[in-house]
Design a protein that fits this description.
With 162 residues, the protein is an all-alpha fold. 59% of the residues lie in helices and 0% in strands. It is built from nine helices and no strands. The longest helix has 16 residues. It is elongated. The N and C termini lie far apart (110 Å).
Length: 162
């Protein structure tokens, strides 16, 4: 084959058009194979810088969060609450709650916090038999909601009804 035709038959990665599936290995060198790791090396835990200084309780909590994220069920997260109350301090749980809430969109953060405190929201309007509806709402309301609505209702009443 003439020398000029050889360049035409090659594609841009150095292989001939007739042998696309093969790569050009003219200039490659043999790469030594890596030795298979021994059983001891395979079972050894990777230890990072932080891992050496983490408290065991914090390592357990890291694994617990991983389990909860993997399972993704309300039951798993309820288990997280139980373990966190034992393994984390009040201040650590407060920081976790604060930063988890601030990572949410404001409307979702507010709804999540209200749900966590068993908030039932505003009382429903009383259509017929208002006292029954008010008692039902009060049964499910949180202590703070009861106090807030009681004070507001009392202050809104005329003096002769107070």
């Amino acid at each position: 084959m003439p020398a000029g035709c050889d360049a035409i038959l090659q594609n841009d990665v150095g292989t001939r058009a007739k042998v696309w599936h093969k790569s050009d290995t003219a200039g490659s060198v043999s790469v030594p194979l890596k030795a298979a790791p021994s059983d001891a090396a395979a079972n050894k835990k990777a230890t990072g810088f932080l891992s050496k200084y983490m408290k065991p309780e914090h390592k357990r909590m890291s694994r617990m969060i991983g389990y909860c994220l993997t399972l993704g069920t309300p039951e798993a997260w309820a288990g997280f609450r139980t373990v966190a109350s034992v393994r984390m301090t009040e201040a650590e749980r407060a920081m976790l709650a604060y930063f988890a809430l601030t990572a949410l969109q404001p409307e979702n953060a507010e709804r999540t916090a209200a749900t966590a405190f068993n908030s039932v929201g505003d009382p429903l309007p009383a259509f017929l038999g208002g006292l029954d509806d008010a008692r039902t709402w009060a049964h499910f309301a949180s202590r703070n909601e009861l106090k807030a609505y009681a004070v507001a209702a009392f202050e809104a009443m005329p003096a002769h009804d107070q």
